[in-house]
Amino acid sequence: MNNVNKVICSLVAANVLVVATIFTLNTYHHPMFLVGKNNTMLFSHGITYAEDRVESYQEYFTVDHTWNGFHDLYSTIQTEGAIKKSLKVYYSVYFWGLDIFSSRNTLRSKEYTPSAEPDITEAHLIDENIEQYFQILYQDDFSFCYTSLLTSSVQCITADQ
Fold first, then answer.
1. Phi, psi of 153 (to 5 degrees)
2. 4-40 burial string, b = 16+ CB within 10 Å, else e?
3. Is residue 41 within 8 Å of 58, Cβ to Cβ?
4. 112 DSSP 8-state letter
5. Which contacts qualify for 104-111: CB closer than 8 Å, 24 or more apart?
6. Residue 124: count of CB within 10 angstroms of its CB
7. Which of 150, 157, 149 is nearest to 33 (CA)?
8. For position 139, what pLDDT does the model report?
9. Tens-of-pLDDT digits for all 161 residues of the chain?
10. So what's the pLDDT on residue 1?
11. How many other C-beta atoms are found inside a 10 Å radius of the C-beta of residue 42?
12. How many helices and strands, by DSSP H and E, does the chain display?
């Protein structure tokens, strides 16, 4: 049993080290506009171009900083066309470095289906629960622009002032 106890202790120590590393990366590498702000409200206004239509939308985000350095993102997407839709999304966001972050554990409202998403590449990902990586293109105290490394889509969001 002595060897089993050593293995268990080693696994516990490795787990604590991994969690501490993720906590440190998230604490020191989150965007400038999140510094000193908790439950930050963000706004995005965009247009998605498809073969047969153009759809404009507004997206509102709330970033919740959790005690362990992680960030939970709650999003509401409001379409602006003739047919109004309100879609809700939840993500866990992790900042890995000065210009890379990822999202995973995505939960969507039941109305948010592939047919409701006008961006074909994003619609394809709705049924997949994968971790997506993003590269930060620009950031300052109030703006944050990034691109998806999977779909190459670009988005900029603005923090409340």
1. -75, 150
2. eeeeeeeeeeeeeeeeeebeebbeebbbebbeeeeeb
3. no
4. -
5. 104/129, 104/130, 104/131, 104/132, 105/129, 111/85, 111/86, 111/87
6. 13
7. 157
8. 86
9. 588 888 889 999 999 898 888 777 766 776 776 766 666 777 888 777 767 777 788 888 888 877 666 788 898 888 877 677 788 989 888 888 888 888 887 888 888 887 777 677 777 778 777 889 999 999 887 788 899 998 888 888 887 65
10. 59
11. 20
12. 2, 8
Task: Tell me the one-letter amino acid at 52.
Answer: D
> Per the structure block, which two tokens stand in for 86?
């309100």
Q: Are 126 and 110 in contact (CB under 8 A)?
A: no
Nearest CA-CA partner of 50 in 109, 123, 112, 106? 123
